[in-house]
Design goal:
By secondary structure, the chain is of the alpha/beta class. It has four domains: 127 residues, Rossmann fold (3-Layer(aba) Sandwich); 82 residues, no CATH class; 91 residues; 194 residues, P-loop containing nucleotide triphosphate hydrolases (Rossmann fold). It is 41% helix and 19% strand. The protein has 16 helices and 17 strands. The strands form four sheets. Strands 5-6-7-3-8-9 form a six-stranded mixed sheet, sandwiched between helices. Strands 14-15-16-12-17 form a five-stranded parallel sheet, sandwiched between helices. Helix 9 runs antiparallel to helix 10. GO terms for molecular function: ATP binding; ATP hydrolysis activity.
Length: 536
Amino acid sequence: MSYLLSVQNLAYYLPDGTLLFKNFNFNISSGKIGIIGKNGLGKSTLLKIIIGELKQTEGEIIRNGKISYFPQNIHEYFDYSISKILNVDKKLEALKRAELGLASIEDLQIISNDWNLENEIKQIISKFIKKNISLDRIGNTLSGGEMMSILFAKVLLEKPDIIIFDEPTNNLDLELKRYFYDFLNISNSIFIIVSHDINLLNKMDAIIEISNLGLKYYSGNYDFYLEQMKIDESSTLNKLTNLNERLSRQKQKELKIKENLFRNSSRSHKRAIKEGMSALEIGSKKEVSDKNQGKLSLCHFEKTNKLIEEKNLIKEKLRKNYKINIDIIPVKLPDKKIMISLSDVNHKFDNSDQYLWKNNINIIFFGSSRVLIKGNSGSGKSTLIKMIMNKLKPTIGEVFYATNKIAYLDQSCSLLNSEISIFDNFKNFASLDMEEHEIRIKAGRFLFYKDLVFKKVSILSGGEKLRATLACVLAMNQSPDVFILDEPTNNLDIESMEILSYHLNEYKGTLILISHDENFLKDLRLDQVLELNAFV
């Protein structure tokens, strides 16, 4: 059978010799595969190997179809125009010259049969973005959701056989997520998707899990994976329990035999003396006895060792369940204390003669407020956050602050200095008197153990960057009075999301949150929703 993608005996070692995975095989000719696993275990690495950006250490990958790759790091597109992101900039320039009657033979070759390209592009983009958008617009002027929408349009234009996504639903509002889910259902392409979005993972036909055990293929969706994984874990734990019981019995038997041998040897020695045996006869008899005892002891020692080896082999089949340990220093603010208030605020951008919102915004954040800011892409969520952070002055209206102890966790983890290590970033946030061992303990709570703490931020995965940012934000001696989180679950593995939601529920300061993650939001105790769609 011919497969569009065939992975055979795949293995990959990091430059330092660390094994990520080995002996992995799978073939695909249709369907959707989800890839899951904890942050930093190699999900993005696997995708880069599949598309050929990284070379595998061992094994073979056979690609029989056109592959389109949708990366996790959208920031690399920020300096490009939309037309360049879509890889149609040269073709559109040639079309403009053709309209003016200035097209060269090379221009006509570039255009080929795509004379209606601009309309086709705008039609595709309109499926994701309802307002008109110039193809000359630069990426860094787009919201996160708008940028993702442009990248979806890029995939549709390329018409690939295999589409590879790395965290595609990050930054997508609920409407765009629904469109993306519909797109998955109607497309004939093969999808390979790294994600922590449980709703998306339950639309997959198969799941590949990356863990300390390597890569494992499950022929069903996320719920099927969970059920099967629990069965596998339970079976392994039962085997381990059984072996522990056998090992305990074997050790007791070994101890009893040693006691019996010692007792028999003592009795035999006393009997020999009583019977008047010579020292030579006693020594000869003891030598024979010792040899027999040695054989018996060796036999039981080998049985014990065999059981210990079996136990160690089974323990290696258990997942290592490392968890982040969030330590938020308690803060308690008066429930009715006004921390931040926005009065009749609105904003005009330099290139616009219209206000962002059709109605001015009024909102008060009290000491106990737990507020979700909702809105579709382009509704002004990031602009509002900048006002709350005092990073942007509104065109009209006033913002009042009763505190400057505001912590902000943004989508791009911009708090971190990419050119230095996690450790040095941590030092920048920690109090001056915090010693190195304390820093390393706190970093370890976010799974940056031993030399991992000296990794340069620029080489971290998306999830590792988020963990490092959280660690830095919480390194301060005092908890923030106001904690603002912008899509905090982007790139965070599912278990870490659950831990984060638990600790945010325990946080007693002012919480302001932007998130489109329904599973994350249902676990949070929120008391107010600001719906920006009502203002645009």
